[in-house]
Amino acid sequence: MRHAAARRPDTFNTPQMKLEILPSLLGAYFGALESEIKRAAAAGADALHIDIMDPHFVPNISFGPDFVALARHVAPALHRNVHLMMSRPDLFLESFAKAGAQTLQIHVEADCDISETIGRIAALGMRPALVVNPDTGVEALEPYLDSVDEILVMTVRPGYGGQKFISGCLEKAKWLRARRPSMDIMVDGGINGGTASQAIAAGVNQLVSGSYLFAQADMAAEIARLKALAAAAPSLSQP
Ligand code: DX5
Ligand code: ZN
């Protein structure tokens, strides 16, 4: 995961990328969020994925900026990767920056000026990232590829944890990796030990996992097992 300030140009001499694992807070036990966040940090997570929803964009409601601030308070060293499933993410950028978001992901389907919003995210000191839903063609991302640090390819329809992985979405990861050898490419939805391998084979270097990871009695062992899958991908640095 790179900070915006450390952005480097893409090259066809593919750099070795690290495989990163991001537990999704939506899969945590909500009765003990503080210890669940600490558990993810202690298990070797590379970042915490925090899902923010509004009921116009998805058929559900989840967390708000205060949960990002909670994560910063409980595990300050754990990078906060914030996924805005919102029709108007542009109205909340300052709130999430203030709460401690470090990567801010907006959907390409959002009802705002995408270029302008990406620029404002970067100006606020966060890494801008763009998300694409299963029913949206990957070409929709093309105008923005040079202005974001990360692309999140949804592998379920957003709104709920615990859904079935849509493997056809990995074609988008392949398309993106062919064009951007050193860009962070992430998947979110239905990731477990089996689907993780498929995603890595498609060029993904960041895996979000909610219900699967938080259900593990030994999350550290499972994160280590997922990281070991990097051995199968020549473009990833070896675990
Ligand atoms: C879904 C969210 C995901 C969710 C994934 O809308 O964006 O981050 O937590 O959950 P799992 O890993 O259970 O599919
Ligand atoms: Zn998410």
Mind explaining what this structure looks like?
The protein is an alpha/beta fold. It has a single domain, classed as TIM Barrel (Alpha-Beta Barrel), CATH 3.20.20. Helices cover 29% and strands 18% of the residues. The chain contains eight helices and eight strands. Strands 1-8-7-6-5-4-3-2 form an eight-stranded parallel sheet. Helix 5 (170-179) links the parallel strand 6 (150-154) and strand 7 (184-188). Helix 2 (65-74) runs parallel beside helix 3. Bound molecules: D-xylitol-5-phosphate and zinc ion. D-xylitol-5-phosphate (DX5) binds at residues 24, 26-27, 49, 51, 83, 156, 158-163, 188-191, 208-212.
Shape: globular
Q: Low-confidence spans: pLDDT under 50, at least 5 residues? A: 5-13
- Protein structure class: alpha/beta
**Adjacency order of strands in the biggest sheet:** 1-8-7-6-5-4-3-2
Query: How many strands?
Result: 8
Distance N terminus to C terminus? 15 Å
Q: Radius of gyration, Cα only, in angstroms?
A: 16 Å
CATH superfamily heading: Aldolase class I
CATH topology: TIM Barrel
CATH hierarchy class name: Alpha Beta
Looking at the overall shape, the CATH architecture is Alpha-Beta Barrel
